[in-house]
Amino acid sequence: MQHFIASYGVIAVFLLMTAESACIPIPSELVMLFGGALSAGAVPGAHPALVWVFAAGVAGNLTGSFLAWAVGRYAGPAAVRRFGRYVWLREHDLDRAQDWFARHGAASVFLGRMLPVVRTFISLPAGIAAMPPLRFGFYTAAGCVPFIGILASVGSAVGTHWQTIADDFHGPTYAIAALLAAALACATVLHTRRHRNQPRHAAPTTGSRQ
């Protein structure tokens, strides 16, 4: 995988992130960390701009996520369970993603982008549940943009030491998800309070009878 990214740069980042988001278990942490490290000159002769590595990661994540969403939406759970093994999709992984979606609803698409295993398969239950595509795309982008940005930036910052960070990144992954979940909860509370405190407009009165 490292050789593929070093040889093809942002194209490889896009393809690998597309595959990972389309339920093929490729470690996206390694892809984006190494892509970021590549932008810092970790490999001689390969030096793509960090912004293009980031853009390729986001575009790949969105593309693969919509592919998986479409499979769940139009093929249904029976087909997913029958043919999932051909892309290394275990029934346990699908059950885990469906349980996560059932508990958290649309927010699971946002939070699931930052959790190992769940992020690879969360698009399937969203499609099976017929989540509207625009809403799905919004939550997918909201979850993947900060996650991919952090990974690529960390990879660029550490350069040739990217593998050391990658080996211990599962802890920070959950920390990022927890911070974003807290931010989402705060935003929801503030929005609800603001909505409740808004004065209600009085209904227009009818004219007096003659």
Could you characterize the architecture of this molecule?
The protein is an all-alpha fold and 210 residues long. The protein has one domain. The protein has helices spanning 2-21, 28-39, 50-74, 76-83, 91-104, 107-112, 118-121, 123-128, 133-158, 162-167, 170-197. The radius of gyration is 21 Å and the shape is globular. The protein starts with a helix and ends in a 13-residue tail after the last helix. The relative contact order is 0.14. The model is unreliable at 201-210 (pLDDT under 50).
Distance between the termini: 84 Å
Run of helices and strands: HHHHHHHHHHH
The largest sheet, given as strand count, sense and whether it forms a barrel, is: none
Helix content: over 70%
Relative strand content: under 5%
The number of helical segments is: 11
Q: Strand pairing plus helix content: what structural class?
A: mainly alpha
Q: In a few lines, what is going on in this structure?
A:
The protein is mainly alpha-helical. 74% of the residues lie in helices and 0% in strands.
